[in-house]
Amino acid sequence: MAKNEVNNTESREITEGLAKIKTQGSVFYNPVQEFNRDLSIVVLNTFVEDYKCDSHSVWETGHKYDDGISILEALSATGLRSIRYAKEVKGVKEIVANDISIKAVEDIKCNIADNKVEDLVVASHDDATMLMYKSRKERRFDAIDLDPYGCPSIFLDSAVQTIKEGGLLLITATDMAVLAGNSPETCYSKYGAVSLRMKACHEMALRILLQCIEAHANRYGRYITPLLSLSADFYIRVFVRVFTSPKKCKQTLSKLSMVHHCTGCGSHVLHPLGVIKTNDKTKQMKYGLPTRGFPNICEHCDHPFHMGGPVWNAPLHSPEFITKLLNQIPENLGTFKRIQGVLNVINEELHDAPLYYTLEQLSGTLHVETPSMGAIRSAILNAGFQVSYTHMNKTSIKTNAPNGLVWDIMRAWEGQHPVNKKRLVENSPATNILKKERQFEVSFEYHEGANPQSKKMGFVRFQQNPMPNWGPGTRATAMVGDNKLEKRKRNQGKRKREAST
């Protein structure tokens, strides 16, 4: 650890992957994001194979290729991500590591030289949006990485114009309180959608971000195809390809839905904004609007709905791309086991069943003993429907079964494990649900599909907190060493001290 004579700040050395960088603590770095960077490297390497499939070159990492891909890291900070891309992503032509902070750019230049990647990485001092706007015609990029502190929406308009045809956008959002329903009015102003406070809030957040990106792309006759959508730690991250087709932009309306979320039992129903009908003879598509109305009261518990959205209702992932990713994970990555586990769970997720329930939500609503995951999954499978986990919640129940079956299963469970009658208050969700007759036959007999393959294989499927006091960190702060809590400690009792003066 060295000492800077001029500004008396400590210089810290950070090693991650094949990169080794130095920062003086006033430039943002968060070690929890190593998983984010590792996964991005795997995604880029897999993307390159598909994107440049017509190239006859045999590409390696750490070499410059004139027919390779150009990458923009618009918010680079220390330059760590760009340097790792230069050393660990194959088929690279050029990487632009940009930051608006002159101090950050100085660090980036030093780190580029120290890692001997001057032929691949170029430092840039510019406003991220202006740099992309200036590049949108003559110097477009094959991949653009946006990893801001907070909301990425201000960068999206320029990003969707600057990305090449079929190029890859890698976008992070860390303002999870807004996206998870704590401030729906703020969510609408930033993302153009109303967020809801619900158990499936993390998936809701992903679907809000995807519809926001799609909305920006549609303005320029472009549309997105999600390859991978992830909720991890304190953030969400999506990997989407961007294509141009004004004709296909017409399909966007059918990919968006309003979400009706019951305030009593937590049931959710999606109401699409558009419908597509295909003529059986001519195979022509006709676009229209749905005509079915929506009830104001939940049919299961007789309580009113909240309405959120619009959200992306199409698949969050590309199954084909996930399969390729699983065959591409280098075992030397620091977060190899976590990536392997998460991708295996994602590979098992139902792609046509938006949102999910949780075990504690279902049992808590009826005030009954919590059933085992195996019992609920078996009951759904025995009824002829599909069910899966989601990587976002270890007690999640993602299913294409109707809400009525889910509550019939819980009614049958309550029949075997009766609720304390003192807890059945008049007109409560539990009372109203339990007094209704069952419409489905329910069997809790164990089904062989109730135990997913990822669990049988013993993968690390759901990550624990990565470190004490983890989180998105603070702006322009290296979240390493013993100093990462200094600001928090300084602010303890701040209001009391101010009041006494």
SSE inventory with pairings:
Layout: E1 2-3, E2 10-16, E3 19-23, H1 34-51, E4 64-73, H2 80-88, E5 92-99, H3 102-114, E6 121-125, H4 128-135, E7 141-146, H5 153-162, E8 163-173, H6 176-179, H7 184-191, H8 201-218, E9 222-232, E10 235-244, H9 246-249, E11 256-262, E12 268-272, E13 275-278, E14 285-288, E15 305-312, H10 319-326, H11 336-348, E16 357-358, H12 359-366, H13 373-382, E17 387-390, E18 393-399, H14 403-416, H15 429-434, H16 453-456, H17 486-491, H18 494-500
Parallel strand pairs: 4-5, 4-7, 5-6, 7-8
Antiparallel strand pairs: 1-2, 2-3, 8-10, 9-10, 11-12, 11-15, 13-14, 16-18, 17-18
Helix pairs in contact: 4-5, 5-8, 10-11
Task: Name some characteristics of this structure.
single chain, disordered N terminus, alpha+beta, 23% strand
